[in-house]
Amino acid sequence: MPTLLTFGDSNTHGSPALRPDGTSDPRFGPGTRWPTIAHAALGGGWTLVEEGLPGRTTCHPDPVMGAEMDGRTGLKIALRSHGPIDVLTIMLGTNDVKARFAPTPLAVTAGIAGLLDIALSDEWQDRHGGFRILVICPPPVILAGRLAGEFYGGPEVSRALPPLYAALAAHRGCGFLDAGRLIAVDPMDGVHYDAAAHRTLGEAVADAVRALMGPALQ
């Protein structure tokens, strides 16, 4: 029974957009958030492990939200907590483009590279018997609503990420999906996805996982 581990931030967790007053609806339920859509589309026999943490970055302890936002620590915990896994998806970088991290496209991509260094290391590959990785580049943020101040300068950085992520994934032998070609952020807060975007992304991830696994799924 193959296992899919989805590692990411609030958009993997299933957080809806924030309203201008700072409130939001509850977390999207199973059947709405994209990891569960992907799981259903893959068909019977798969196990899903969701590891989405709102605020998570690729490599930054957040001075506001806490040191636990550093994805390097979270990935090691996830890989030690679950398994064996067959496919790992990594969709991070949105929170890295916050102004307080002084982001550049190369620096954000370097954060993804650090996560791939962990996931592709002999320690974790051997522990799980080998697993494949799908790198997902999130759609660009826009400056809107409650979160606009935090993401000042972020749109320009995030728009430059897809070719860098794609080249990195190819170099490291990973699959790649540019989510920005399929979905856009909710204009209410410029960061999160609506339910329709979750469905579109989940179905695309399932297709990408099938392609990544190839004959192993037969």
From TrEMBL:
Q: Per its UniProt record, what InterPro entries does this chain match?
A: SGNH_hydro, SGNH_hydro_sf
Q: What Gene3D superfamilies does this protein's entry cite?
A: SGNH hydrolase
Q: Where is this region: Disordered?
A: 1-30
The chain positions of domain SGNH hydrolase-type esterase read 7-199
GO terms, molecular function: hydrolase activity, acting on ester bonds
Would you say which domain of life the source belongs to?
A: Bacteria
State the Pfam families in the record. Lipase_GDSL_2
Stated name of the protein:
Lysophospholipase L1
Annotated source species = Wenxinia saemankumensis
